[in-house]
Design goal:
20% of the residues lie in helices and 29% in strands. It is α+β, with helices and mostly antiparallel strands and 165 residues long. The radius of gyration is 16 Å and the shape is globular.
Length: 165
DNA sequence: GCCAACGTTGGC
DNA sequence: GCCAACGTTGGC
């Protein structure tokens, strides 16, 4: 088990599951199922622990944006949606006996007073190396550095940045 | 709707 | 083990 990242970014398409859905869920908690990428799976299975902080990101949205915060409340466990034939994320190679795919439980913390849209984030020097902003980056579960997490939280509590002259 | 970038699959 | 073909992601 690695002890490194304690901060994460989770992507979700708001048409499918938005931060409002999370806030409205029973106990404001849900299982983060359906991830079918090995690198993302490894983060969930091996590295996420209860108490880890999460940036909630809306992808394929207008605009794409970080919209709030959540917390990991249950570490990786087998993603049962992979066992159900009727499920979009069914995978016949995954079984109870030898699971391939994993999920975690995520609890809502807060919705930011304003969205932090992708173009705005691209303009923040402290976020230059953020995984989200790298060219071609598609990972739906990403590690985030503490400095990046802190910069984003701080930004969210500020008023909108001054308009460019 | 387009398409660049990426991950996965499968033939060899 | 290489790599072309394919499917998917996700910003624009």
């Amino acid at each position: 088990m690695s002890d490194a990242p304690r901060y994460w970014l989770l992507k979700s398409e708001p048409d499918c599951f938005s931060i409002d859905h999370l806030a409205a869920a029973p106990k404001q908690t849900t299982y983060w199922s359906g991830v079918r990428n090995f690198q993302a799976r490894n983060f969930m299975r091996d590295d996420m622990r209860p108490g880890d902080r999460v940036l909630f990101y809306h992808s394929s949205a207008e605009p794409p944006a970080v919209v709030g915060l959540a917390t990991i409340v249950k570490p990786g466990y087998p993603d049962f949606t992979a066992e159900e034939k009727s499920d979009d994320h069914y995978d016949p190679k995954h079984t109870k006996q030898s699971p391939i795919w994993y999920m975690v439980d995520v609890k809502f913390d807060e919705k930011f007073p304003r969205e932090l849209a992708l173009p705005e984030l691209r303009g923040i020097p402290a976020l230059k190396e953020m995984v989200l902003l790298q060219k071609g980056s598609r990972l739906s579960v990403q590690p985030v550095r503490k400095a990046e997490f802190d910069a984003i939280v701080k930004l969210a509590k500020q008023k909108s940045p001054a308009k460019k002259a």
